[in-house]
Amino acid sequence: MTTNIPVQSTNVSDLSYISKPIGDLFGELPVNPDKYTRCLLSEDQVGFYKANGYLTQVRVLTDEQCNRILDEYQRFLLWNNNKENSSGKNDAHLLDFPEKEFLYEYHSNQSEDPNQVVTHMLGHWRVSPLFHDLLFMPTITVPTSQLLAALHPSQQTLMPVQFWHDQLFAKPAHQGGQVAWHQDYSYWTRTTPMQHLTVHIALDDQTEENGTVHYVPGSHRWYRNHDGKEGPLPITDIDFKDMDSIKKVLTEEEIQQFQPLPSLLKKGHASFHHPLTVHGSYPNRTSEPRRSAVLNYFAEGTRSDTDEPLLNGIPAIARGELLNSRFFPLVFDPKWI
After folding, report:
1. Distance CA 21, CA 125 (A)
2. What Gene3D superfamilies does this protein's entry cite (predicted)?
3. Cα 325 to chain centroid, rounded
4. Whether the model pTM is above 0.90
């Protein structure tokens, strides 16, 4: 069983050493089980997820919490900086704080096209107390536990949840770019089994005009056989440039079923999606930015399927070993209810 015992370190600037909430966003984890049970999804919500592979409009943050996070967000944006020496990819060296070394990835513009700007990063939970505490919020972790269990072969109603990694996706006004259609597990086959889930949190109201995330209902059933196992579709565009590149690898039946729907998330609301659910988002051409925070989780019992580091800059976990380290803390256990 994974435990949350903080490791003492002289390097207190790395918040991965603190495997429980610091208290800056919502206080401490509840002691009263009722505070967890009030975060449970309804049977209808779970049923919708099982049928479609995603669920939208779940309130997880207050407007005040969103505003505090948006203030913190500014540390990570280089939209107004002179970036003559950067294409937009792997340019964390331009950030103005020493803890940038703890980020797993940083791209001020992953597309490298100045007219299609998407800031994308991983690992900010190790740098920011607010983003650190976000991953522990019961409004997020309790529904995650339910939805991981909903399609799990164990047929449980709740499962222990561990954190995988975070992401920020930010699209500036007028020239915000697209994120091409993809399945998340295509990027995560270095972990096994596939028992993951993603939470996309809107920090601004999302509209079709500003690039809301879209989902393809039922696409969580789209897989390919890899060495006798069910696996994801191949990666077709890692840098978001070709919106429809995934269609090159779809079957005729999948293309007929390819009917994306906009999530239209409201500020402080989240969508939860399966690791095979095809999703993406179109450009932002409005006069305001579109910013989101993404949290990725997996069920306890997930193992490494590589001998290489699972994320940039962290120690490798040998193939076949459980993902038990300070970088993958336990964020929810059904025993707490």
Report:
1. 11
2. q2cbj1_9rhob like domain
3. 19
4. yes
